[in-house]
Amino acid sequence: xxxxxxxxxxxxxxxxxxxxxxxxxxxxxxxxxxxxxxxxxxxxxxxxxxxxxxxxxxxxxxxxxxxxxxxxxxxxxxxxxxxxxxxxxxxxxxxxxxxxxxxxxxxxxxxxxxxxxxxxxxxxxxxxxxxxxxxxxxxxxxxxxxxxxxxxxxxxxxxxxxxxxxxxxxxxxxxxxxxxxxxxxxxxxxxxxxxxxxxxxxxxxxxxxxxxxxxxxxxxxxxxxxxxxxxxxxxxxxxxxxxxxxxxxxxxxxxxxxxxxxx
Length: 263
Description:
Distance between the termini: 89 Å
Number of strands: 8
Number of helices: 6
Shape: flat
Largest sheet: 2 strands, antiparallel
Radius of gyration: 31 Å
Order of helices and strands: EEEEHHHHHEEEEH
């Protein structure tokens, strides 16, 4: 016994539109997955491997565009809650270290305290051993890091040649010029870092390009302002890390790009 089975229509009414001369077929733009080639004025060629891909706002957005402006509010809230939860988890994991660090700062005896025990106006005394050790570490280390000829010293890897030796000297001179003459805060921020390092056990430096100054900038980031999970073995392998002000970058990468312009 045959079974009636509905058949899909060969044509859909949406495939046609009514015009002055009757029904006409609607042509749809077919997006091709094939890469497109565009010749540039200098004879080069631009290859677009995703011609069907759309930009965030329909036009050519710059690489530095703020993605938060193109994400739905609901998704932004979800991302924010997830980040806050993970930040609180990382911060709580180092609570014991924060308490120990805070007590260590008190033992330096650098703050004037208004004591009320055993009586009002009583004098408190701290032994200067810890503060002397910190200052001694800072003064000895800064001499090694910042010698008179400059903190940068180049070394040639591989085959030696007079040309590579001259290039290495130019790089060394330029990097020392950047750190000592252009980045005027580099030494003072390094001294702050060396004072905090023996107390906190860790210290960080944030190096970034400051648009307002028009040059690379080096700023010391205290360990208490750099949040990372306490059980992470190394900063480079940590999943999350949150620091203070501007974006973090790499000093050798920034200065190396600058040195290549000079050479």
